Amino acid sequence: MEASKTLIYDGSFNGFLTAVYTAYGEKINVTGIQKKGYAQNVLFSEGKTVFTQMDQAKQVWNTIKSKSNSAIKNVYFAFLSERDDIEIILFQYIQKLLTPVKHSNDTFTQEIILKIEQLASTVSKEKRRLENTTGFQLTKDEVYFSVIEPNFNVLPLISKHFRSHHSKQEWIIYDRKREYGLYYNLRFVEFISLNLSEIQSLDPTTSWKNRKEFSSNLQVWENYFSNTSIKSQINKKLYNQHLTKENISYLSQAKEAI
User: Fold this and answer.
1) Of 32, 43, 129, 169, which is most buried with the most CB atoms under 10 A?
2) pLDDT tens by residue, 110-129
3) Contacts of 39 (CB under 8 A, 6+ apart)
4) How far apart are CA 79 and CA 115, in angstroms?
5) Are the C-beta atoms of 146 and 135 separated by less than 8 Å?
């Protein structure tokens, strides 16, 4: 009997899709899929490192999409939920999706499908919340800037909305929790990282119970940005999220499709 294996990938969505491709291509008995650096030893399971391959990721994406547009949206949104065991749940979901219908009506299958649909729905609600509530501060170099800390990794999902609604101004939306952001330069949106160590303690949303204190903090926040040049802090070479230019281009196309 083939030994069970835990697939270890780089944490990116394309890396996960590559792991799925590897599992099917090598007929691996997968017991887990874990991010590199977070992988834990699993009893009776051998670890196998998977390196992201864009052509393989695209092939898995297109295969899932050919089955159902809603399914590929569910996979992408649920992945961004960052749930600890999301990879193996998604792998099971994809397995069921690719299983002939006559063999896919068992209770376990329905539970997996429901779980992924619920996660995707929760992430979608967070996406809409950010689109409706995100506000900006104007910086010294005329860039509108916003710092957010969403419950899920929804930053890749909101770029289309803000590009459409704020197309005539430069803006940055930065996810302080995940340490990367979106920068719109009046032509296109790109992923960036920033050195925001100076504003880690500035949060004008923490003192709603004391309106006087809130007003004071808000003034500090506004004064800081009116005297800060954000452009000089932009780092386009991302280490976080493994968002290479190739990945960004592919995922941009993917987001437009869903």
Assistant:
1) 32
2) 899 999 999 999 999 999 99
3) 6, 8, 47
4) 12
5) yes
First to last CA, the chain: 40
- In the beta sheet, which residues pair with residue 48? 7
pTM exceeds 0.70 for this model: yes
Task: Specify whether the CB–CB gap between 14 and 57 falls below 8 A.
Answer: yes
Nearest in space to 205 (alpha carbons), one of 146, 122, 138? 146
Please say whether the beta carbons of 56 and 18 come within 8 A. yes
Q: Can you name the residues that pair with 168 across neighbouring β-strands?
A: none
Per-residue 3-state assignment (H helix, E strand, C coil) for 163-218: HHHCCCCCEEEEECCCCEEEEECCCCEEEEEECCHHHCCCCCCCCCCCHHHHHHHH
236: alpha, beta or left? (left if phi > 0; alpha if psi -120 to 50): alpha
Structure tokens at 26: 């090598």
Strand-pair category, 137-138 with 189-194: unpaired
C-alpha 14/C-alpha 24 separation (Å) is 15
CB 3 within 8 A of CB 77: no
Distance CA 209, CA 31 (A): 48
Length, in residues, of the chain: 258
Instruction: Compute the distance between CA of residue 207 and CA of residue 129 in angstroms, rounded to an integer.
Output: 21
Residue pair 58/247 in contact (Cβ under 8 Å)? The answer is: no
